[in-house]
Amino acid sequence: MKRFASAKPLPILLLLIFLAAASRLLPHWPNFGPVGAMALFGSALMARRWMAFVVPFAALYLSDLALNNLVYSQYYEGFFWGFNGWVYAGFGLTVLLGFGLLRERSFSWLRLGGVTLGATALFFLLTNFGAWLGSPLYPQTGGGLLAAYAAGLPFLLNSAAGNLVFAGLLFGGARYLAPRTQAVKVRERV
To answer: Is the CB of residue 97 less than 8 Å from the CB of residue 122?
Structure first.
Protein backbone atom coordinates (compact mmCIF):
# COMPACT_ATOMS: atom_id res chain seq x y z
CA MET A 1 0.00 0.00 0.00
CA LYS A 2 1.08 3.55 -0.47
CA ARG A 3 2.11 5.97 2.25
CA PHE A 4 0.82 9.52 2.37
CA ALA A 5 3.42 12.24 2.29
CA SER A 6 1.85 15.65 2.16
CA ALA A 7 3.76 18.84 1.64
CA LYS A 8 1.37 20.36 4.17
CA PRO A 9 0.64 17.67 6.78
CA LEU A 10 -0.79 20.09 9.35
CA PRO A 11 -4.20 20.58 7.68
CA ILE A 12 -4.60 16.82 7.26
CA LEU A 13 -3.57 16.22 10.87
CA LEU A 14 -5.93 18.89 12.17
CA LEU A 15 -8.82 17.52 10.15
CA LEU A 16 -8.25 13.96 11.39
CA ILE A 17 -7.90 15.14 14.99
CA PHE A 18 -11.05 17.26 14.76
CA LEU A 19 -13.12 14.46 13.19
CA ALA A 20 -11.99 11.87 15.74
CA ALA A 21 -12.54 14.21 18.68
CA ALA A 22 -15.94 15.31 17.39
CA SER A 23 -17.02 11.71 16.86
CA ARG A 24 -16.47 11.00 20.56
CA LEU A 25 -18.82 13.86 21.45
CA LEU A 26 -21.67 12.63 19.26
CA PRO A 27 -24.10 9.99 20.53
CA HIS A 28 -22.77 6.53 19.72
CA TRP A 29 -22.67 2.99 21.07
CA PRO A 30 -20.19 2.64 23.95
CA ASN A 31 -16.67 2.16 22.56
CA PHE A 32 -17.85 2.32 18.94
CA GLY A 33 -15.45 4.96 17.66
CA PRO A 34 -12.70 5.75 15.17
CA VAL A 35 -9.68 6.31 17.45
CA GLY A 36 -8.30 2.75 17.28
CA ALA A 37 -8.74 2.63 13.51
CA MET A 38 -7.09 6.04 13.20
CA ALA A 39 -4.12 4.78 15.22
CA LEU A 40 -3.71 1.87 12.79
CA PHE A 41 -4.29 4.10 9.77
CA GLY A 42 -1.67 6.58 10.92
CA SER A 43 0.87 3.89 11.74
CA ALA A 44 0.46 2.28 8.33
CA LEU A 45 0.26 5.31 6.08
CA MET A 46 1.67 8.48 7.64
CA ALA A 47 5.07 9.24 6.19
CA ARG A 48 6.25 10.68 9.50
CA ARG A 49 5.94 8.19 12.36
CA TRP A 50 5.31 10.87 14.98
CA MET A 51 2.10 11.80 13.15
CA ALA A 52 0.73 8.31 13.85
CA PHE A 53 0.89 9.09 17.59
CA VAL A 54 -0.27 12.71 17.37
CA VAL A 55 -3.63 12.00 15.72
CA PRO A 56 -5.12 9.54 18.25
CA PHE A 57 -3.53 11.18 21.32
CA ALA A 58 -4.60 14.70 20.37
CA ALA A 59 -8.11 13.50 19.53
CA LEU A 60 -8.33 11.68 22.86
CA TYR A 61 -6.93 14.60 24.82
CA LEU A 62 -9.25 17.20 23.30
CA SER A 63 -12.35 15.05 23.53
CA ASP A 64 -11.45 13.94 27.09
CA LEU A 65 -11.22 17.60 28.09
CA ALA A 66 -14.71 18.22 26.76
CA LEU A 67 -16.24 14.98 28.03
CA ASN A 68 -14.71 15.05 31.50
CA ASN A 69 -15.24 18.76 32.13
CA LEU A 70 -18.52 19.49 30.37
CA VAL A 71 -20.55 16.37 29.66
CA TYR A 72 -19.59 14.28 32.71
CA SER A 73 -18.32 17.03 35.03
CA GLN A 74 -20.48 15.83 37.93
CA TYR A 75 -18.50 12.55 37.96
CA TYR A 76 -14.94 13.95 37.79
CA GLU A 77 -13.12 16.28 40.14
CA GLY A 78 -10.18 16.95 37.84
CA PHE A 79 -9.54 17.40 34.17
CA PHE A 80 -8.95 13.72 33.57
CA TRP A 81 -10.13 10.42 34.90
CA GLY A 82 -7.35 8.41 36.56
CA PHE A 83 -7.97 5.48 34.21
CA ASN A 84 -7.01 7.51 31.12
CA GLY A 85 -3.38 6.38 31.28
CA TRP A 86 -4.42 2.83 30.47
CA VAL A 87 -6.51 4.02 27.52
CA TYR A 88 -3.67 6.14 26.12
CA ALA A 89 -1.23 3.24 26.58
CA GLY A 90 -3.65 0.97 24.73
CA PHE A 91 -3.79 3.29 21.75
CA GLY A 92 0.00 3.72 21.88
CA LEU A 93 0.35 -0.06 21.63
CA THR A 94 -2.13 -0.01 18.75
CA VAL A 95 0.15 2.41 16.87
CA LEU A 96 3.18 0.21 17.59
CA LEU A 97 1.29 -2.89 16.44
CA GLY A 98 0.42 -1.07 13.22
CA PHE A 99 4.08 -0.13 12.70
CA GLY A 100 5.05 -3.78 13.05
CA LEU A 101 2.28 -5.45 11.09
CA LEU A 102 0.92 -2.95 8.56
CA ARG A 103 3.78 -0.63 7.68
CA GLU A 104 6.18 -1.71 4.94
CA ARG A 105 3.93 -4.58 3.90
CA SER A 106 1.73 -5.00 0.86
CA PHE A 107 -1.91 -4.16 1.52
CA SER A 108 -4.39 -6.92 2.21
CA TRP A 109 -7.93 -6.57 3.54
CA LEU A 110 -7.45 -9.84 5.41
CA ARG A 111 -4.27 -8.57 7.10
CA LEU A 112 -6.00 -5.29 7.96
CA GLY A 113 -8.93 -7.16 9.52
CA GLY A 114 -6.62 -9.43 11.51
CA VAL A 115 -4.46 -6.58 12.78
CA THR A 116 -7.56 -4.54 13.63
CA LEU A 117 -9.04 -7.39 15.67
CA GLY A 118 -5.66 -8.09 17.29
CA ALA A 119 -5.26 -4.44 18.27
CA THR A 120 -8.80 -4.44 19.65
CA ALA A 121 -8.04 -7.52 21.77
CA LEU A 122 -4.77 -6.02 23.02
CA PHE A 123 -6.55 -2.78 23.96
CA PHE A 124 -9.27 -4.78 25.75
CA LEU A 125 -6.77 -6.85 27.74
CA LEU A 126 -4.72 -3.83 28.78
CA THR A 127 -7.56 -1.47 29.69
CA ASN A 128 -9.56 -4.08 31.60
CA PHE A 129 -6.41 -5.08 33.47
CA GLY A 130 -6.06 -1.40 34.38
CA ALA A 131 -9.71 -1.27 35.47
CA TRP A 132 -9.14 -4.30 37.71
CA LEU A 133 -5.90 -2.89 39.11
CA GLY A 134 -7.21 0.59 39.84
CA SER A 135 -10.85 0.10 40.74
CA PRO A 136 -12.26 -0.81 44.15
CA LEU A 137 -15.11 -2.58 42.31
CA TYR A 138 -12.96 -5.65 41.69
CA PRO A 139 -11.12 -7.66 44.35
CA GLN A 140 -7.40 -8.00 43.67
CA THR A 141 -7.70 -11.72 42.96
CA GLY A 142 -7.80 -13.90 39.88
CA GLY A 143 -11.58 -13.96 40.20
CA GLY A 144 -11.66 -10.16 40.34
CA LEU A 145 -9.57 -9.97 37.17
CA LEU A 146 -11.91 -12.38 35.41
CA ALA A 147 -14.87 -10.28 36.59
CA ALA A 148 -13.23 -7.16 35.12
CA TYR A 149 -12.75 -8.92 31.79
CA ALA A 150 -16.30 -10.28 31.84
CA ALA A 151 -17.69 -6.79 32.56
CA GLY A 152 -15.76 -5.47 29.55
CA LEU A 153 -17.05 -8.00 27.01
CA PRO A 154 -19.92 -5.80 25.68
CA PHE A 155 -17.41 -2.99 25.17
CA LEU A 156 -15.05 -5.39 23.37
CA LEU A 157 -17.71 -6.28 20.82
CA ASN A 158 -18.52 -2.62 20.17
CA SER A 159 -14.80 -1.76 19.93
CA ALA A 160 -14.22 -4.55 17.42
CA ALA A 161 -17.20 -3.45 15.32
CA GLY A 162 -16.19 0.21 15.45
CA ASN A 163 -12.55 -0.47 14.66
CA LEU A 164 -13.46 -2.71 11.72
CA VAL A 165 -15.97 -0.21 10.30
CA PHE A 166 -13.70 2.82 10.68
CA ALA A 167 -10.58 0.97 9.49
CA GLY A 168 -12.53 -0.07 6.41
CA LEU A 169 -13.66 3.51 5.82
CA LEU A 170 -10.22 5.04 6.39
CA PHE A 171 -8.17 2.53 4.41
CA GLY A 172 -10.84 2.12 1.74
CA GLY A 173 -11.21 5.88 1.41
CA ALA A 174 -7.45 6.30 1.16
CA ARG A 175 -7.20 3.64 -1.53
CA TYR A 176 -10.05 5.25 -3.47
CA LEU A 177 -9.08 8.92 -3.09
CA ALA A 178 -5.28 8.81 -3.34
CA PRO A 179 -5.03 8.38 -7.12
CA ARG A 180 -7.89 10.85 -7.71
CA THR A 181 -6.65 13.94 -5.90
CA GLN A 182 -3.76 16.31 -6.25
CA ALA A 183 -4.15 17.53 -2.66
CA VAL A 184 -2.25 14.54 -1.31
CA LYS A 185 0.92 13.26 -2.89
CA VAL A 186 1.29 9.52 -2.78
CA ARG A 187 4.64 7.87 -2.95
CA GLU A 188 5.53 4.24 -3.19
CA ARG A 189 7.41 2.71 -0.30
CA VAL A 190 10.94 1.75 -1.07
So the answer is: yes
